[in-house]
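Notes from hallway chat w/ T.B., transcribed later so I don't forget. T.B. wanted the structure written out for a chain they're using in a teaching module, and asked if we could keep both sequence and structure tokens in one place. Agreed to drop them here.
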Amino acid sequence: MTDGAPGQARRHGALIAWILVIVLATALAVVATLEKSKPTAGNAFQLRMLARQMIGSGGGSLRQLDSVTEGDLAHGLRVACVAAEMDGPEAAHDRLPEIATDPAPEPDDLRAHALLDQLWVDTDDIAETAVRADALSSPDREFVVEHLGWFGELAVLPEGTSRAGERRDLLSSARSATLRAVTIVVLGIGALLAGMLLLALFPLAVGTERTSLHFAPAEGNGGLLAQTFAAWLVLVVVSSTLLSWIFDGSGGLVVGMAPQVIAISALAWPKLRGEAWSDTRRRLGLHSGRGLIRETLCGFASYLMMLPILGIGVAITFGLTRIAESMEASSDATHPIVLMLVEANGLQIVGIFIAGSVIAPLFEETLFRGALYRHLREATGRWTRWLSVPASGMLTGFVFAAIHPQGWLAIPALAAMGFGLTLAREWRNSLIAPIVAHGISNGVVFTALLVMFRS
């Protein structure tokens, strides 16, 4: 009877932990989705990305820009600036949003609206628009550019302007951005094909002397790891809520990463419950496996093999995005750190890379692929590996996706990424491979954004 009581307590502890995880993960996903339904900088970022590609390639339809739902006056002004370049001043004037569409217009939006109306009203003559743009006072011109950014530059530098050199540089930057985007896509396709080849060959190699699955879900106190994960999630939510309240939603990268640092203290929970740290560390996968160099190289291979799986998730997210656009709902699935990156200075860029490609992978892999996946594999230990691994991996991936701030549209892509990382853990047992793969994934995205938007 004495052996049954601890086992029952562990089951109850795991049940309570899962209730907390489900409630908090659901709440975070709902909050993120509601936030994405509001006008955000993410919408402006999507709009700029699409518009630069259209101008740079000389093709596309303005309907693509209409699909980026933001709903405020500034959004309509930006779309009108692109319309002036692509379809002429009359089309741009027709697209100037009615001031009444914004219940609380900002004074700067009203001023920008008036200046753009001055450029495009009662004319379909591009040459006339150029004369009007050149006649703008320096303060007015600078204001349009400062308020609307790249779109403002497009408006005050129309075809035929006397500032032909500035216009040439502006269009050249758009064409260069498009060329860089195409180059990145080609490289991505190459990496995807390499990943598909490795993923196809991997099952054939498993079981050979050089390649085997090293994860072994031995009997253990898996309920304790579920409690550890729940404690981590509670600490993340509580600390991020408090810090957001204290700093009134500001504070930047440091405040954004602070909850991760605070919450890692949840790893002390097994020790408090009597488990030796050496046992916890082994079960989490915090060891060098079969050597640091080999595990790191396997991390690179894991990243490539994750890409086909990620591609499926991205395709689903893309389809959901198109559905959201057809319903005139928000299609923004941008992570806040991306918006920080495209506006950051040199030192801030270094900090973002460290946070996103080192700190976040280390902490998230320790809790998701370390604690949560180990718990699920031990809980399904009586199943065959080919049932336990997909079930545990998909559930881990779904929770991983739900707590991220991109909203419901990004869940398929992030869950696919999380599932791919669990396969790296299953393969190597050590967390080095999934940490490296996660870090490479984030680093590649950051680098691609810098190349396209900061060069």
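Follow-up for T.B.: The chain has a mean pLDDT of 87. Might be a good example for the class.
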